[in-house]
Structure formats: structure tokens, C-alpha cells
Amino acid sequence: MSVNKAIAIGTSAGGINALGLLLPLIPENFKIPVFIVQHISPYAEMNLRIFTQKCHVKLKEASNNETIEPGVVYFAPPDYHLLIEEDFTLTLNADPKVNFSRPSIDVLFQTAAEAYRRNLTGILLTGTNNDGSEGLKTIKQFGGKTIVQNPAEAEFPEMPQSALKLFDPDMILNLKEIGELVGRL
Fold first, then answer.
1. At 41, is the pLDDT very low, low, confident or very high (cuts 50, 70, 90)?
2. Of 14, 135, 142, 175, whose CB is crowded by the most CB atoms within 10 A?
3. 79 within domain boundaries
């Protein structure tokens, strides 16, 4: 039986609203690191204040070579891929876009799967392209748990639908169900 040691979340269009509903459901005593890629313009600023007033855990923009701490929610900064290293540090890079995106959900999911293996839960939320589908499949191949937001509920269903066309995730859930599950991990 696997023990959950990290959560990786990917989202694109509609993600700010989805994360605004999901993140407040994470309890204050949460001890698992969470990594988030939210597709955002390279010229935009990730304003975490839109979430911090409602959340009970520490939210921060990831920094290069940072050691991962339990109970912290790390956001990929605009225009940088967020990678999880096998020594449980974070790396940021400006390698070419993957699936037209930097940060790329696939990059986060694939590197997190290699570091955490079966101890990772990957969650793919609303979005308009197929970024994250291959990475989520990689998480499943490494024995991690995979969750896709119900496309019928997603503000933009293309990203969840893309994952469902590629493989069978462990769960297809509505946002509230995802939040409740995350809170129990």
C-alpha cells in the first residue's frame, strides 16, 4: 500500500476559479507538499493573495533549488517550468514550451512521478489543451494515484477529456469531492 507524500495539481483556463474552491478545503494541519502549475501569461504576476485570505496553509511561489517542505503549496512562477528533483528540491527552468506552455503541467507531473513514484497523487483540473495528460499517465505508470476533474463540471472540459481519452485515471471527481479527498490525505 502506498503512502501519499506529495500532491501535484495542473490546471489552465478556469483554474483560478477551480483552485479558489479547492485550496480552502486543505486543512491547517496538512503535512503534505502540494505543487501547482496554473497556466498563466509569461508577463502576468501570480497573485497568490487571491487565495491566501481563504486558505489555511502556506502558499508560495516556488524558488530555484528550494528544499521541499511539508504542508506548503508551491506555485510554478510564470514562464518557468517547475521540476521536482529526486533529492526533493525544486528546480525552475526556461526550457522550450511543452504543449505550448511554460510552465508545463506535463513537466511537473513527470518529474514529480520520478521523485515520489507511488507516493504521489496527481490531479488534473479544468483547461483548454492537452497539457497534463501524458504526465498524469506517467504518475499512474509509477504507481501514483490519478484524479481527473469531472469534465461535465469543469469550466473548460478539454484538458480533463484529453486525459480520459489517453488512459483510465483512478478517479473522476467533482471539485468538492477532490477537495474533500485531498483534505483526508
1. confident
2. 135
3. yes
Given the residues 81, 104, 106, 131, the one annotated as active site: 131
- To 10 degrees, what angle do helices 158-166 and 133-141 make? 40
Domain that holds residue 58: 6-184
* Mean pLDDT value across residues 120-145: 97
131 is catalytic: yes
Residue 1 forms part of a structural domain: no
Half-sphere exposure of 34 (CA within 13 A, CB side): 24
Q: Is 56 labeled as catalytic in the residue annotation? A: no
12 as an active site residue: the answer is: yes
Pairwise CA distance, residues 18 & 147, whole Å: 14
> Considering its fold, how many domains does the chain have in total?
1
